Amino acid sequence: MKKVLVVNSNPKPNEISFGLRLGEHYLASLQAAADVQIERVNLYEENIPLIDGSVLDGWGKAAAGETLSEQQLQTMGRMNEILEQFIAADVVIFITPMWNLSYPPLLKAYIDNVIIAGRTFKYTAEGPQGLLNGKKVVHIEARGGFYSEGPAQAMRFTDSYLSAVMAFIGITEYENVVVEGMNAVPDRAEALLEEAKQRAEASVKRMFAQV
Ligand SMILES: Cc1cc2nc3c(=O)[nH]c(=O)nc-3n(C[C@H](O)[C@H](O)[C@H](O)COP(=O)(O)O)c2cc1C
């Protein structure tokens, strides 16, 4: 049985979110195709620490063998929990809405909790090396406009960043399943979602044929 971690960075209820509706379809297809155990993290409902001055100071103190404050210990403990949960997953499914050519800030905060030297990557003489080989990542993304082709293609920062940062920690088996254009052509929004659901099913077949 494979462990699937679903990281939801959308504060909306499922029924009014295209990305979450696509995500649920992806999960249903995945459950029909493979033996999986699904765990969910809702970034807007959980404590996701930011790297702030206190965290940076705590990391410095830990490296120097100095005593951390009670609050630093608590924050580090929570960061470690997030990291361990991520490392334990075989598959991570990120569900994100596009906001201002990016994704919600809590997703960046989450990523900052899992890109940790010595745990998910290490420095070597040849440069940094990812340590999480063998995992899969699926990025389910909803975008109001069209970015897959046309002039806005150059602004697909969301996916290029997420795929790059996952590759940095060794996860190169990566797919982006997109529903887009719902704000550009609102009367086609539901049809666009249906088309995206077909792509989700094809992605499940490609990614999980042998799971
Ligand atoms: C704060 C905010 C910023 C947005 N910025 C963009 C944007 O830069 N480009 C875009 O195509 N759509 C943008 N949109 C539209 C959303 O991407 C679109 O509504 C999408 O369906 C959101 O995903 P969801 O339906 O899963 O919530 C934005 C929406 C919000 C609420």
TrEMBL record:
The protein's name in its UniProt record:
FMN dependent NADH:quinone oxidoreductase
Q: Which family does it belong to?
A: Belongs to the azoreductase type 1 family.
**Which residues does the UniProt record annotate as the domain Flavodoxin-like fold?**
2-202
Catalysis: reaction(s): N,N-dimethyl-1,4-phenylenediamine + anthranilate + 2 NAD(+) = 2-(4-dimethylaminophenyl)diazenylbenzoate + 2 NADH + 2 H(+); 2 a quinone + NADH + H(+) = 2 a 1,4-benzosemiquinone + NAD(+)
Cofactor section: FMN
Keywords per UniProt: Flavoprotein, FMN, NAD, Oxidoreductase
HAMAP family, A to Z: Azoreductase_type1
Q: What is the lineage of its organism?
A: Bacteria, Bacillati, Bacillota, Bacilli, Bacillales
Q: What does the entry comment about cofactor binding?
A: Binds 1 FMN per subunit.
